[in-house]
Design goal:
Elements (H helix, E strand, L loop, with lengths): L4 H25 L3 H4 L4 E7 L4 E4 L4 H4 L3 H11 L9 E4 L11 E10 L2 E11 L27 E5 L2 E2 L1 H8 L5 H29 L1 H24 L4 E9 L10 E10 L2 E5 L15 H15 L14 E4 L18 H15 L17 E8 L4 E7 L30 H7 L2 E8 L15 E7 L3 E6 L20 E4 L7 E2 L2 E7 L4 E5 L21 H6 L6
Parallel strand pairs: 10-11
Antiparallel strand pairs: 1-2, 1-5, 3-4, 3-6, 4-5, 6-7, 8-9, 9-10, 12-13, 12-16, 14-15, 15-20, 16-19, 17-18, 17-20
Helix pairs in contact: 1-6, 1-7, 6-7, 8-9
Length: about 550
Amino acid sequence: MTLSPVTTEIIRSALIQAAEDMNTTLIRSAYTPTIYEGKDCAVALLDREHRVLGQSSGLPIFLGNLEECSRRTEEEFGAQVWQPGDVWVLNDSYIGGTHLNDCTVYAPIFVGGDLVGFAASRAHWIDMGSKDPGGSMDSTTIYQEGLRMGPTRIVAGGEECGDVLRLIATNVRFPDVTLGDMRAQVACARMGVRRLGELFTRYGAATIEEARQEIFAQTERLERQRIAEIPDGVYEATGHLDNDGIDLAVPLKVTVRITVAGERMTIDLTDCADQTTGPVNCGSAQAVSAARVGYKLLISPTVSLNGGSFAPLDVVVREGSMLGAREPAACQYYYSSLGMLIDLIVKALAPVLPDKAAAASYGDSMIVQFAGDNPRTGKPFVTLEATVGGWGAWQGGDGESALINNVNGSLCDLPIEVFETLYPARVTEYRIRPDSGGAGKWRGGDGVVREYVMEADQDLSLWWERSVTPAWGLAGGRPGTPPRVVLNPGTADAREMLKANSLRVRKGDVLRCESGGGGGFGDPAERGAGSAPADPAHAARGLTPDR
């Protein structure tokens, strides 16, 4: 049969919308603000061969490898393991690639007794029973980071597996909300089962199959065309992480080597630092995912992601490296190297794609975490926040200010009202960090200043990065200002630091966080006096557009 292009597009859009419906179900059902406010999650529908049919908005760093979880489950147990009504969970850092807090919940989808696909979501669970609440900034092995689950069935035939849920509940600090978030992901999976089943009922298996093949083929053709437009050659870029959180004096190399040959591209990550003592490692699946994010960001950002997207892309990861870690490497802050990796892909190809490349962003999630006993409720708490910053300028425009980093996509920082309602601290200042973006013909975006005052004794943890290699400029643009964090600024005991683990702070202490700016693009001398400001914040402050 020859399928109408109209029908193909209807099915393509329906698959994407089905994933969005799943994501909405998850966010509205979640128990913790990390998910329902921060949206630290991602969702995808997969076909029976574990390829993406449709995905929601979410964290791009998750969306490149959700299929690895169902694929590895099938490899381990065989295809016969999939049964209607079952739901599985997996958070193993060496399979899924991320830290243990990121739990993937997935379910097989059957129509008329036949397996037709999978519904999958990944979300950050607030605590996995690590040695410190929420997660440790100084872990040195995976065993310090909490409960690690290989492929595990949590619902069998529609009924919860009570023994497994009890095992999870007794290994985490906040069992009620943890199981609540897990059940929100189960509801998300069931929405995927429902939506894909409706499509098969409406159009029939043959039509869906033909549409799938055509969608994948169209996407692959477009991807190959985009790669073919790049001159053949080898392109390389290198940066350095500040450290691994344990040995603070040793920067860690991240190198990207990209080979373009006709319609194919290879991203080689073998020349990166060996796996480290500290928690900056990740499983190779996550390094592949980050490379895919960098590729999509630069090569084909307008082409929807599905099973045909990465057919012409190969990613090479060295086992035993920081990006291809082996047990028992610590993986809690896996994303620092990956954010840099994404920027480096753009930097490497900038000489041949100058009209598409942007200077580097501020780069990292810049985590602030508080934990302790809340005097308002008499209960323990833990909060995790990512901090926004400045993005790089590009040929034709200034960088964006106060935007979440490229690893996190749709992630949101917590609204001040929500934060102050739930936790014993106040946000006394939250504003743009003036002139922190790099100078250039087009300026880098600015970071932010966010200041907290403690309303109770509690523990502070920090993970801030990109001071050794701050956001670089392109084409003569200047780098952005690196991040800065100060405890009790302006006092005799003021203390500057970028990383800390469970540091005891007292009621009345002040924490001032200043995120980095993005890199500039082009010679600053070419910026005209009448240039428009990068964003309304500059105009609101009364700043002139040229520095």
